Each structure stands twice: as C-alpha cells, then as structure tokens.
Amino acid sequence: MAKLGETDLDVFPICFGGNVFGWTADRDESFAVLDAYAAAGGNFIDTADAYSHFAEGNAGGESETILGEWLRARGNRDRIVLATKVGRWPERPGLSAANIRAAAEDSLRRLGTDHIDLYYAHSDDQDTPLEETLGAFDELVRAGKVRHIAASNYSAPRLAEALAVSDREGFARYAALQPHYNLVERDDYENELAGLVARENIAVLPYYALAKGFLTGKYRPGGDTPESTRAGGASAYLHERGVKVLTALDEIATLRDIPVPSVALAWLLGKRNVTAPIASARNPEQLSGLLPAAENPLTAAEMERLDGASSTPAG
C-alpha cells in the first residue's frame, strides 16, 4: 500500500478505473473483475458521475450504480477507497456550489454510501469562482460526506491558484491531481505540473496510463487492429517514437517475465509523486496484465531506457 499524498488514505498502487462499468463491461463482467481486483489486494477504485453517458443507450451514472451494487453485495465498503468526480456530466455540468452539493448527494445515493473518500473536480470550471467551488467542497468535507478533495484536468496556474485560495480561506485543499500522463504523453505534465505537485506534495494519479490501450502492446505496426472502442485512439501512437517505446517495453517485459502493460505502469510508479496510475480492465484476464506493476519496481537503468525511448525529440 502507499500513502496518498498528505492524506490518511492508504491505497493499492494500481487504481482501478471504473469507466468500463456499464460501458464495455456489463454488471456481471464488472462484478467479476472487481472481485479479482479485491482478491489481489486492490482497494482503490475510480469512477465519475459522468460514466458512462457517452455509451449508446446510457444516460450517465451507470458506473457508480454498478459499483454501488457491488459494494453492497460484497459488504466491503470499509475496505475500499472510493473516488468519484463532479463537473463533466451533461446533466450536472460545472463546479458551482449548487451543482457540487446536488451531484454529491446523487453520487452518494448511487454508490450506496455515506461518504466519498476522494472527490474530484472532474475538470476546471473557469466560469465559477474558485472560492465558490472550493467553499462547496469544504462544506462537504466538514459535513463528513467527503474525506478529501482532488483535481483533474487542471493547468498548473489554475491548480496553484486553487491551492492559494484554500490556504487563504481555510478551505480543504486539493490533495491529489489526476492528469493525462503516460509514456507517450509526457510533455504537458512534466513541463507544467510536475514541479508544482512536488513542491506541494500532491499525490498524482495519472489517467490514460496505458494510452488508450496502446501501451498494452496489442497495437503493432502492420498488425491487425484489435476490436476495441479505443482502437482508433490507440493506433494514433503508432509513430516512430511510439514504436521505440514498444521496443523498450518488450525488452524489459521479456527480461522481467512480466506483462508489457505492467512495465508501462511501473514506469509511472517510478516517477516522483505518482501514487497510483489509473488503469481499466474489462475482465480478470486483462487485469492480470496490470497487477504485477505493484510488486515490480523498475531499476534506474530500466527507467532511463524508457525515458530515452519516450523522449520527445528536440526541435
């Protein structure tokens, strides 16, 4: 387990991404993969009220509903660190105080719990004053409905401003950041955010940790494209640098005798402040390719090999 920043939360170093529940995994499939994750020692699950409104026939809230049913069926809420988000569901957009209060109540109901361990602003809302947003989050923390708050998709200047507002007003602070960060998407996080989160000791929980599936190794030059809802996005990384990354991942995975996606996740875990990359799986078989990352830290030489392969050329 790993401590989540300066919070009192102890989390498994691979956070399970619940965007698949009610989308690419139905209720029974979701229960099966959640059971496998918990059996392996996993305790950290990430979802959002917006999941999965983007799937045909869905309205939103499906992921939280399925997760809530599983928690009740297994009676294990006290062993799970539960993260969800507000602000990007078209039914409840933005980070106004009224919306945050209403969305939190809706999420608590769907999840069947009296508190959320980590509650995210799903993305920045520049139309609402940070004082209003953070004040609403602070109310939830003081009421015991939320333990800690976090930010997703914030720029460095806005995250710094939000932290300053919390410090000035005595509000709860963002304790974690969920950025888009992986071996083939490094620049935005490393150039803009890494220094800030290090100074502020904020936990980092990267999403798209496997680059929409590209870093699983399933997508290869000249190969058949796997059938997947994310195939188009993953295939976009089949450029020269992406192929170099796959080559380096293959080398390390072969020497370590662990799956390629676990090496990609272990690289993230080797980065300062990264506590638990977020990764999804539709079934226990896919999950088995992710979990070895938790127990196989990379050496300095392996980190350097992957850093070199994934560096953006100067120019």
UniProtKB/TrEMBL annotation:
Q: Which residues form the NADP-dependent oxidoreductase domain?
A: 13-309
> Which residue spans traverse the membrane?
none
* Classification via InterPro entries: AKR_Detox_Biosynth, NAD(P)_OxRdtase_dom_sf, NADP_OxRdtase_dom
Q: Which organism is it from?
A: Saccharopolyspora taberi
Q: Which domain of life is it from?
A: Bacteria
Output this protein's name: Aldo/keto reductase
